[in-house]
Design brief:
Number of helices: 5
Strand content: under 5%
Number of domains: 2
Order of helices and strands: HHHHH
Low-confidence stretches: none
Distance between the termini: 41 Å
Mean pLDDT: 85
Number of strands: 0
Largest sheet: none
Helix content: over 70%
Length: 146
């Protein structure tokens, strides 16, 4: 499903207004002296949402995205989803296998997802990066490994 920029702006504006209303209602339970600045920021956020929503309603000119832009957006969405899934799998791997192995695999997969397709270099760069992390954090700074 393709969502154009106008629809994204409307959705974002509505979400911003809803979140600011919820935060504003929560802030009413705090004393005015301690919640003056957060109330001001919440009101400002709500106003910005209203302005954005009005701008999207007034703007009659619809963005005509060509097929290449749609394909690029789908590719970007797939990459983002793969990155999120790999982060979840990395957290699971940290609990089940060694930190160093999980980190090297995670870094290699991330580089592959982001477009660097040479597997040998991915592994070498991941091992080198992990080695640098190990030296800096675990050896020099004395932080214990997870």
């Amino acid at each position: 499903m393709y969502i154009n920029n106008k629809q994204k702006d409307k959705l974002f504006a509505l979400m911003t207004m809803c979140i600011s209303i919820v935060v504003g209602l929560v802030l009413l339970s705090y004393p005015l002296e301690s919640s003056y600045f957060p109330r001001f920021l919440t009101l400002f956020l709500f106003c910005m949402g209203v302005i954005l929503f009005i701008r999207t309603l007034k703007n009659k000119e619809e963005d005509k995205a060509n097929d290449k832009a749609k394909a690029e957006q789908i590719k970007t969405f797939k990459s983002g989803a793969l990155i999120f899934i790999s982060l979840v799998l990395y957290v699971i791997a940290l609990q089940n296998i060694d930190y160093s192995i999980a980190t090297v695999i995670f870094l290699s997969v991330m580089m592959y997802i982001l477009g660097f397709r040479n597997l040998i270099y991915n592994i070498l760069i991941s091992v080198g990066f992990y080695g640098a992390l190990y030296l800096i954090f675990f050896h020099f700074l004395g932080i214990s490994a997870p």
